[in-house]
Amino acid sequence: MHELSLAQSLIELMEDEARRGGFSRVRKAWLEIGALAGVEETALRFGFEAAALATCAEGAELEILTPPGEAWCFDCGRGVVLQALPDGCPHCAGHRLQVTGGTQFKLKELEVI
Q: Is there a smaller number of Cβ atoms within 10 Å at the N or the C end of the chain?
């Protein structure tokens, strides 16, 4: 369950930002987690809630944006949208794909007190 370590890293980042920014609580955090990032949202939310206890992020709401996966298909020469790996090209069913997007895991914004 690597989502717990991701949640702990998010909390550390928020604690660092709280020290630098002089705020005491995070009310809401916007995350961007690509469809191909390999992160289970339910497990991340559970891990975040547990890891946030007694930190500036305790009780914070997570808003998760999920951009689609993107790839270049070498078989048909097109950029394609992928829902998951190892899906094939939706146009030609080829599997010679170079992933070009949808693998990010970013903390985009915080709403703080």
A: C
